[in-house]
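HUMAN: I'm a chemist; might I ask for a sequence paired with its structure tokens?

ASSISTANT:
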Amino acid sequence: MDVAALLGRPVAEDDLLDRLHSVIDPELGVNIVDLGLVYGAEVIDGVARVRVTTTTPACPLGSYMTGEIRRALFDVDTVLDVQVEVTYEPRWSVDRMTDTAKAQLGWPV
């Protein structure tokens, strides 16, 4: 049985993504969801598992983003822990960005 379900209402991926909109890439000034850096988010047995990438494998912000993701999700009801996996497969591309992110960066949409 899912421990999180025992503690309260299950947390949907959309709820986690809403919280992750508060995590801003400090180099670009755009949130990681609209940048397309979040590949998935779920809560299983009270553990929020988030799969993310960075814009390049050489990006020095991986540990910063991990800390900010943990901060954003720890106050979600039923989340007892947060695990962040940083991956580079599939590689990030600008095609993953939302129109909102493109507009914030001054790109035509």
